[in-house]
Design a protein that fits this description.
It is a single chain. The chain is mainly alpha-helical. It contains 7 helices and no strands. It has one domain. The protein is globular.
């Protein structure tokens, strides 16, 4: 599998934020070091997947807390939202239709390829 380590790291970032399995300090370093497109699209995928879900408040709250805890992450989120790759990705794929594994596979392949 191509980019196996990158996919594993991206999946860990997504799952840890989604499940609240790690504290903000642990997530902060990962998200501060991450590609802005990755940050933006992980947040976007979570927002879409949890729209109307009973766990939405927790997921959205962790995203907000992470952005409030670090200006770097919030800047990356904003930068990533303006990146042409993010625009292309969101126009080419319906985030609602991508399960977690497919989303990470496709995203990392596009970022690293």
């Amino acid at each position: 599998m191509a980019f196996e380590a990158e996919k594993r790291d991206a999946m860990w970032m997504l799952v840890a934020l989604e499940d609240g399995a790690k504290g903000l300090d642990d997530l902060r370093a990962l998200y501060e070091a991450a590609d802005p497109v990755l940050v933006h699209l992980i947040f976007a995928w979570l927002r879409v997947r949890y729209r109307g879900h009973s766990a939405a408040e927790g997921v959205y709250g962790r995203i907000a807390a992470l952005c409030q805890a670090s200006r770097t992450i919030d800047r990356k989120r904003q930068e990533g939202s303006r990146d042409m790759l993010s625009t292309w990705f969101e126009e080419s794929y319906d985030l609602r239709d991508l399960d977690r594994d497919t989303f990470i596979d496709v995203l990392v392949d596009k970022l690293e390829g």
